[in-house]
User: Fold this.
Amino acid sequence: MMELTVRGMNCSPCVRVVTAAVHGVDPYARVEVDLGAKSVSIDSAADIDHIKAAIEQAGYTVEDAAVEAHS
Assistant:
C-alpha cells in the first residue's frame, strides 16, 4: 500500500483526476482519496515513481510517499 501526500486536491473533480491518473498507470489499482488530509492511498503493483509522475503530470504536487510492505 502506498501513501502519498498530494497538494492541490480540493474538490470531487480533483479526486476523479487523481484516480484516473493512477488508473492510467495501473487500471486495477485500488485508490482511496482523503481530501481533508490531502492523502491518497494506493494498492498497486506498479512502480511508485510511475504513479507519482502520472499524478504530477495531472497537475498536482506529490510531497512525500511511504510504501507499506505486504507480509
